[in-house]
Structures are given as C-alpha cells and as structure tokens.
Amino acid sequence: MKEYFKVSTKTIVATGLGAAIFMLLFMYVKVPSPVPETSFQTAYGLSGFFATLFGPIAGALISFIGHALSDAVQYGSPWWSWVIASGVSGFIFGFAFKRTNVEEGEFKGKDILTYNIIQIIGNVVAWIIVAPVLDILIYQEPASLVFTQGATAAIMNIISAGVFGTLLLVAYSATRTKKGSLSKK
Amino acid sequence: MKLFSYNTVDTPIHCLSGFTKLLCFLLLTFAVMYSYDIRVVLLIMIFSIAILKVSRIQFSQIRTMVIYALIFIVTNAIISFFFSPEMGVEIYGTRHRIIKLVGNIYLTQEQLLYQVTKFFKYASVIPLGMIFLLTTNPSEFASSLNGVGIPYKASFAVALTLRYFPDIQRDYRDISLAQQARGLDLSHKAKFKDRFKNSLLTVIPLIFSTLDRIELISNAMDLRGFAKYKKRTWYTSKKLDRQDFTAIGISALIFIGSLCVSLFINHSRFYNPFI
After folding, report:
1. pLDDT band at A88 (very low <50, low <70, confident <90, very high)
2. What is the ipTM of this complex?
3. Which residues of chain A neighbour B163 with C-beta distances below 8 Å?
C-alpha cells in the first residue's frame, strides 16, 4: 500500500506534464453531448492511463490541476465541485497502479478487466456521488439537474477511460520489453 | 491560445505578491459561493468589477472568457429552470405566481429571485478569477500555492504544467500538421467519426513523446537534488508589505461580512424577502 503513495521526482514530473496534456485534451479534443454542459472528454482516458502508470497521487493531481486550469483559462474561474470530482476519479483510477502487468509488456484479458473495473468504480463514485452532492452543497443547484448531468458524465467518462485508456495502455505495453523475452542458450 | 496573457503593468494589483492575490481570490470566491443573498452578491460583484478597472485589464484580453462564461451561465439558467421550476418555492417556502408558462409550469417570484441571485453569483466569481489569472506572474504562482499551505511538490507540479503547456500545445500542432501532410483528414470535409479517430491519432504520438520527456526532466531534476529537503525556497516569492496586508484585510472583512449576514441576519444561506 505504501508504494501507492510514494511521491518521487518522476511522479511530480509525470503529474505536471500529464496535467498539461489533460488541459489540452480537455479544451480541444472533445465531443459535445445532448445533455447541456457535459461533453465526451477524451481527457479521462488520458488520466486513466497516467494513473495506471504513476499511481493515485499523480492521477488525482493530473485531473485536478488539468481541470482547474482549463476551466480557469476558458471561463475565468474553476467550477469547484466538478474539479474536485475529477480529482477523485483520477485518484481512484490510480489503484490500477501495479495491479496490471503493463510495465512488463503485457496488457491482455485479465489486466484489461482489472483496469476497467477500477475505472468504472472511479467514474461512478466521482460523477454520480461526489459531483452532484458537491453541486448541491456548494452551489445549491436543483438535484434532478445535477444527477442527470452526473449520470451522463459518468457514462461518457466510462467510455472514454475504457476505450481510449485501454488503447493507450495496450500501445504502451507494446513498447515495454517483455518479461523473460531473453533466453540463455 | 496564450495561457496566462500576463503582462507587467504598474498598478496596485500587479504589485501585490502572488500569495496575497491567491488568498484574496480564495476568500472572495468563498464569500460569494457561500452566500445566496442577492445584496451581498451584488456588492461583491461591484467590488470585483472595480478591481478589474483598477488593474487596467483590456476587454480584448478577456473577450473569449466572457463569451464562454456567459454561454455557460445562460444555459445553466435555462436548463435549471426547466429541470426544477419549483426550486425557488421549495427554498423560500412561499408561492407568488407571476404568469403561467406552458402546461403546469408557472413562473414564480421565488424562482425568479433564486435564478437571478444564482446568475449574479456565478457572474461575480468570473472577474475575480480573471484578475487573478491576468495579473499574476505564472512563475510566482507556484510559490504562492506553496505559501497558502499546499505541499511544495504539488506546487511544483503546477509550475511544470504551466511551463510545459505551451510546449505541448506546439507539439500537438506540429504532429497534427505532420499527420495531415500524410493524408489524415482533420477538416470539416471528413466524416465526424473519421475526424474523431484522426484526432486521436494525433494525440497518441503526443502522449508517447511526452513519456520520454518525463524521463528526461525527472532525471535532470534528480541530478540537481530536487526533493532532498522537506522545505524549499522560491526564487520568485516576494516579502509581504503593507499593501499586501491591506488587501488581505479587506478580503477577510468581506468574507467574514458575508458569513455574518448569512448567520445573523438571514439565519440561512438564503435571503428571504417573502416572509
């Protein structure tokens, strides 16, 4: 458990650069959805990918910083409840860290399943529980509205983290040297 | 798109230290977020617009943000009305009908007050954020985050994000042009599905080249002894002077004032003129 929360220099750098890509994707690579103020964000695929490689702290900070800064740049001020929910989702994605064999060059069947179960839990907790509840507590938004928005966001982010995140992890595992790929003759 | 279109202008706001501005921004945002009293909200809004004038921010600098924010607030107002037109009645406990809209939906005075308050509440936060973004030197931002109690490693991550965002944006453009030269269609002519797929094909090389860069930067930082000690000093941090304390004092007063109005005058977060 301890290694999950170890913060090395590499974690910090991965967080900084990951958040920068998150911002870029969050602002430019998205598809609007029929429910107002939500859209299909490829950024959550990225945060799933980085969280699996660098752990929960990196995952939480990447989504939190990336979301807060892109909100600030676009609207002038972050929408705190959703920014916090983003952080929570990234944090939970981070529990896929060291649970898969992606660093050993294998990301198949069981690993894909593990990653996807974790990302689904993360998205459900963040968008169906944390985001709407904070919306009601901080902003006193109508409950029916925020739960509709939350459920839409959850579904779209599950697809994004599931499809785009899995693709990235598979591609990444192909660049790693396989365990036991050298044999002595 | 330029990230922080910060430029040095000699105004009292620019002279404040980054720490002061961050603290004031947080105090004022929380003051306005907590209160649902239209009088408090309007006062803070007037105050923040006055500060916007003092800091001599040109409208051209903030035009895109203003447009985006207005679209956001207006859609929010419209959909929250149609999702729960009775929210105001629920909150204030009375019901004064104004006119009948479609079907069973009535416009009530309570709903109108709730929505107008909410509109100004969101609108008044925006100038505050803009002032903070446009008058703070990006390299001072990390030191001020550390100043308000955020661990320096996390502050450093923010500094790295701000430092590398322009680079990543440039790489993204380069890769996108290279892919287009190879025949990936990203224009409006391509089908929506293909366009989305092709834009992912530009993002993937960007992510993998960034992974290499992470290795490089973290090695460089390790070699310079980053994170050796529990604390660090910042090259850009300023000492607080009298102006800083005045600014913090004013913001703290507004914050406490907003809390007191809610606690002692309204006895809730809402101002209720109907009872």
Report:
1. very high
2. 0.89
3. 16
Helices (H) and strands (E) in chain A, counts: 8, 2
By CA distance, what is A70's nearest residue in B? B3
Quick check: is B212 in a domain? Answer: yes
User: Which of B61, B161, B226 to substitute to test the interface with A, most A CBs within 10 Å?
Assistant: B161
Q: For residue A91, give the CATH number of its domain.
A: 1.10.1760.20
Residue B159: inside a domain: yes
B5 occurs within a structural domain: no
Rounded Cα distance, A101 and A114, in Å = 11
- Give me the residues of chain B with pLDDT under 70, please: 1-5
Is there a contact between B160 and A61 if contact means CB atoms under 8 Å apart?
no
Give the count of domains, chain B: 2
Distance from CA of B215 to the nearest CA of A (A): 7
- Nearest CA distance, B6 vs chain A (angstrom): 12
Measured in degrees and rounded to the nearest 5, phi and psi for residue B187 equal -85, 180
Amino acid at A102: V
Polymer length in residues for chain A: 185
Both B164 and B123 in one domain: the answer is: no
Closest Cα in chain A, distance from residue B33 (Å): 7
For residue range B95-120, list pLDDT tens digits in order.
Answer: 888 888 777 788 888 889 999 998 99
**Which residues in A lie closer than 8 A to residue B153 (C-beta atoms)?**
7, 12
Residue pLDDT, tens place only, A17-36: 999 999 999 988 888 777 77
> A116 is in which domain, residue-wise?
8-175
Q: Residue B72 domain-assigned?
A: yes
Q: What's the domain range around B200?
A: 145-223
C-beta atoms of A74 and B65 within 8 A: yes
Chain A residues in contact with B87 (beta carbon < 8 A): 142
Classify residue A184: in a domain, yes or no: no
pLDDT tens, position by position, A44-59: 999 999 999 999 999 9
The C-alpha atoms of residue B212 and residue B253 are separated, in whole angstroms, by: 49
Tell whether B179 and B218 lie within a shared domain: yes
Helices B242-260 + B38-54 axis angle, to 10? 160
> How many structural domains is chain A composed of?
1
